[in-house]
Write a structure and sequence with these properties.
Structural class: mainly alpha
Membrane topology: Multi-pass membrane protein
Radius of gyration: 15 Å
Number of strands: 0
Number of domains: 1
Oligomer: single chain
Largest sheet: none
Strand content: under 5%
GO molecular function: amino-acid betaine transmembrane transporter activity; antiporter activity; choline transmembrane transporter activity
Number of helices: 4
Order of helices and strands: HHHH
Keywords: Cell membrane, Membrane, Transmembrane, Transmembrane helix, Transport
Organism: Methyloceanibacter caenitepidi
Protein name: Ethidium bromide-methyl viologen resistance protein EmrE
Distance between the termini: 7 Å
Length: 113
């Protein structure tokens, strides 16, 4: 049985990347102090957790999952929190990203299972 630790680090990296990106939007180009501080701290935690992930998961696959899930979550936050709309091609593209992450996780023999 493979350790879940790399996947927990990857989940942590994704969560903090999403927090950092949301705070980045709130920072208004780093003109607001606290959202800027949250951005820096969240990205630090995210990249640290991603570095631990890369001890066990190949960089290409880890990055594909990290960025793919992050893109979808940030798009959802943009939609709900910032009222940024998505057109049909954007929604189709996001669905393809989700499909790609599912295929990697379900079928890739490069991931520790």
């Amino acid at each position: 049985m493979t350790s879940l630790k790399p996947f927990l680090y990857l989940a942590l990296a994704i969560v903090f990347e999403v927090i950092g990106t949301t705070a980045l939007k709130e920072s208004n180009g780093f003109t607001r102090l606290w959202p800027s501080v949250v951005t820096a701290l969240a990205y630090t935690v995210s990249f640290t957790a991603l570095a631990f992930t890369l001890k066990s998961i190949p960089v290409g696959l880890a990055y594909a999952i990290w960025s793919g899930v992050g893109i979808v979550l940030i798009a959802a936050i943009g939609w709900f929190r910032f009222r940024q709309t998505l057109d049909t091609p954007a929604i189709i593209g996001l669905a393809l990203i989700v499909a790609g992450v599912v295929v990697i996780n379900a079928f890739s023999k490069s991931l520790p299972h």
